[in-house]
Every structure is written in structure tokens, then in C-alpha cells.
Amino acid sequence: MSENLALPVSILRVKKETPLIRTFVFDRSFAFSPGQFVMVWIPGIDEIPMALSSENTNTVQNAGDATDAMFALDPGDKLGIRGPFGNGFTKGEKVLGIAGGVGAAPLLPLALTDCVMTLLLGARTENELLFVDQLDECTDVLIATDDGTLGMKGYVTMLMDDLNLGAYDRIAVCGPEVMMRAVLTKVEEKGIAHKTEFSLHRYMKCGIGVCGSCCIDPSGLRVCRDGPVFSGDMLLKSEFGHYMRDASGRKKNL
Amino acid sequence: MVSLIPGPITVGGVVLDNHLLLAAGILGTTGSSLKRILSFGAGGVVTKSIGPQPKDGHAGPCLVVLGDGLLNAMGLPNPSKEFVDEIASLVKEPVIVSIFGGNPDEFALVASWFEGRVAGFELNLSCPHAEGYGAAIGTDPDLVEACTRAVSRMGMPTWVKLTPNVTDITVIGKAAERGGASAIVAINTVKAMRISTGIQRPVLGNRYGGLSGSAVFPIAVRCVYELYEACTIPIIGCGGVATADNVIEMMMAGASAVEIGSALYNDVKIFETIKADLYRKDGLTPEQIIGSAHE
């Protein structure tokens, strides 16, 4: 074992991306592969898993007490970072990215490696679309919004119907689990679940594969250590899209 | 190296495929995770500790990795009674359910949910970082005896896991024995703290936590050795076991079996790894090794 205490970082600046999403820029960089996450310690509050959106940023949607506290921080305030942990997306030559909401956070660094040919970007409404400009600069972006304020009206999965999915060697997906489950159903129908990867979000305590709070059924695999990116064929007939567990370990239906 | 002859054993009323059990608190939150560890060769598994009410546990950080161990303060997160369904498919497997409570009645209540559905109980009288539970009870011999009796009288194998954070662990071991324990498990984590010099705060949300892993192995060996001299019921050694030689050392100190936890951080399949080194058809019998370091 080598010691892995949280490394202190100072917040250099906070960028408002959408009404609900902000990017926190740190004064320290972390070598990572897209899809890996860090455990972010907000002193006195909690520690939560967060995907890296670049080597020195977390892009965060306000979703609870810990992120509330994070949103109240100012430049100069300190956080502790453990990680990066877990496995990122498998590199491909012709990748299709599919992102919903804040799920674009781990897909931006993937797109910046120049392997993403097309990226399907979805959100509830136009001003909740994340990283539109940055993604536009490095890949071909197709947009869907639930209310039709930009792009196709409907779910991001509907954009898949107009694509020749066989043209891609990998598909990388991150977004709300209901949306990801819809993608899994589509790629399963087309027989390409094995080359589609999904980034899972589960409640985590340790982040390093020992506490068991993020294990998924029925495989017992650990999202923090064996994931958080899993191949679609490993998620068929699993809890994925159906339920997850809360901090106590009780099942909560999606 | 000394080797052991393979074959099933019976320890504290529980039949095990081998001498190696998964320790409580490691990968024991779900039935599927416990099943996975059994498939990796564990002789038995101890579940996450289950209590009378669901608990979310402490605010994070809950765990940090140190050079020679893990420091954690989970805070006894558990789904309480829902765990009965969680492990329902493991009814015929060597599953020991770890339970905790604030008094003898709560221990008896939680144990009653699992009666006839598990191979045995392990009483958590030793968690060092949960107010009113664990070591808060486990340092008082009278309470240890009463909590043990409240469960052991149900007639199922009842193991009692002890805290090393006491002046004399044999006093607590003897209290468990008087209460009708079938075995003693020693040790739980050692109360500890680290501070982030960069953040100027303790690294755990709960500030205090429990140290496990190689750093505590010598403490565990000492406790097992002392308990072997003081008690007559079997001892299950726990604390920093990571190699086959560690298993033999624990057994020479007096352990009849061992539990392994933190070592799964480096190797989730450590049970297979250790078994490959530990067992030989021409190895010694357990009786030739257990307690053999005592004069």
C-alpha cells in the first residue's frame, strides 16, 4: 500500500456553466483517464465521488447537502481530493459519445482526445445543456432537449435512430440512469452492448473497493473499483436502470 | 513454511471450508457481494454489522489508505431488517451475520430476525467510533456478558468480536465466555486518527476512526496470545492478516481460524492466493499448530 491521504487543493475560480451546474477549477492537476473519478472532501460537511471534467476541474450539479456546501465555496477555499479512482472509458478510434445533463462532464475530456466522431448531447432545456461550445470545437455535436428549446425535441436516445451505429467502434455513455438504460436497450437490440460503455453513479463511502456500499446486483462488482465505467453486456439483467442503494444499503427504486 | 492439511473445519459451532473468513465491514453490505467473495474461496463470510434501525453512517471522509493499513469511520451504516431479504439466497452458505445494538434486548431483537437463516452470529462489541454502540459497550465486562447471553441463549453459534482498546482484553474475553459465547473474535480496529496538515483537520469526517491492516497485526497476535491463555473457547484471529505465514502465526498464537479484511484492498481474490500457499496434503493438522507458540 502507499499512503493516499486527501491532497489539499485551493479553488482558483468557479465557473457557472448552467443554472444548476458549476465548474470548480483547482490549483493542482491530477493525471487521469476520462471517466475516472475523485473523492472530493468538503471539510466539515462530507466527501462525495465526482468525475473529473479535466485534470484540474470538477463539474458539479447541485444535488444535495454536500454539493450545496460546495456551491457556497469561493476562490481560495480549500477542498481535499483523493484519487483519481476507478476505470475510465476504453479508448477507441471512432467513438460515439452520448451525454445527458451533467453526464457531459466526463465526456468532454474524452472528446478532447480527438477520438469522438459524434456526440449526442441532451438536457431538459436549452440553458441546461453542458459544454456545448467546448464540445462543438472538437467533435460533431447533435442536440436534443426535452422541451425542444434547442435541437430535436425529445430524449437524447431518439438521436441514435438517425445514426449508423455500426460506424463507431465504441460508444461512451454518461447521464441520468433512466436515459442510460434506454441507451442500453437500444444497443442490446442492435447487438452492440459489448462495445458500449456506461459510467455509473452509486452511493460510495470508501471509493477504493473495500466497504461494499456501491456493489451492484447480481454480479457484486464494485462501482468504485471495478467501474465506474462498465461494458453494456455486464449490465444486462442487472440492477442498472431499476434500483440503487442509499447510504444505509437499502434499495431505492429509480 | 509450515503448511496446513486442507479440509473442512468446525470453529465455534460453524462448519467452514477452510480457515479463512471474510471480516465484518469489508464488502459485506449486499448478498451479491458476499456471494462473490465466497466464490473467490473464502471459507466463510461475516456480513456488515446489522443493527436495530437503518443507519446512514458518518459523514465522509469515511476511509483513507495509509502506508500500512486502512483508517476508517463508517459509522455502522446498515439497512437493518431489510438485510434479511438481502442474504435470503445465501441461507445454506457459511454466512455469519454481524450484529450490533445498544443493549442486550436490541442484540436479541436483531439476532431473532436471522434465526435459522444464517450459520451464526458475530456480536460487534468493538466498533471504536460509534457512540453508544460497539466498544462503548464492549469495554464493560458486565454488558458484554449480558449482550452475549441475550443472543447465545437462542442456541445458535455466537461469536463475540472484541475491541483491543482496553487495558486487559482477557477480562472482556472471559466475560464473553461466561455469557455463553461459542468463540471469540479478536480484534476489531484500533482507535486512531490522522490529520491533514494541508486542510488542518482530522482526515475522517468522524475525526476518530479505527485502524486496520498490517499496522495492527502485532497487536492482534498479542491479543490472541493473551486470550488463548485466559479462555477455553476457540479464538478467531483478526487484524492485519495478509499472507499464509500470517495465518500460521495467528494460529500459533492460539487462533483456530482467521478473518481477513483490509488485505482485500490489494487483492480481492486474496483467499485463493493465501489458500494456494497455506494448504498441502502433507501439511500439519490444525491441532498441531493452534497455540503451539505457548510453552
Describe the protein's architecture and organization:
The complex is a heterodimer of chains A (254) and B (295). Chain A has a domain at 7-85: Elongation Factor Tu (Ef-tu), domain 3 (Beta Barrel). Chain A is of the alpha/beta class and 254 residues long. Helices cover 14% and strands 33% of the residues of chain A. Chain A has helices spanning 65-71, 104-111, 132-138, 177-189; strands spanning 7-16, 21-26, 37-42, 46-54, 57-61, 78-85, 95-100, 116-123, 140-145, 152-153, 170-174, 196-199, 229-231, 243-245, 251-253. In chain A, strands 10-9-8-7-11-12-13 form a seven-stranded mixed beta sheet, with helices on both faces. A six-stranded antiparallel barrel of chain A has the order 1-2-5-4-3-6. Chain B is α/β, with parallel strands linked by helices. Chain B has a single domain (9-289), classed as TIM Barrel (Alpha-Beta Barrel), CATH 3.20.20.70. Helices cover 29% and strands 20% of the residues of chain B. Chain B has helices spanning 31-39, 83-86, 104-113, 135-138, 141-152, 169-178, 217-230, 244-253, 270-278, 286-289, and strands spanning 9-11, 14-16, 20-22, 44-46, 63-66, 69-72, 95-99, 120-124, 158-162, 183-186, 190-192, 195-196, 201-202, 209-212, 235-238, 255-260. In chain B, the strands form four sheets. An eight-stranded parallel beta barrel of chain B has the order 3-4-7-8-9-10-15-16, surrounded by six helices. A four-stranded antiparallel beta sheet of chain B has the order 5-6-14-11, with no helix packed on it. Chain B is globular and about 50 Å long. Chain B starts with 8 loop residues before the first strand and ends in a 6-residue tail after the last helix. Chains A and B meet through β4 and β6 of A and α1, β5 and β6 of B.
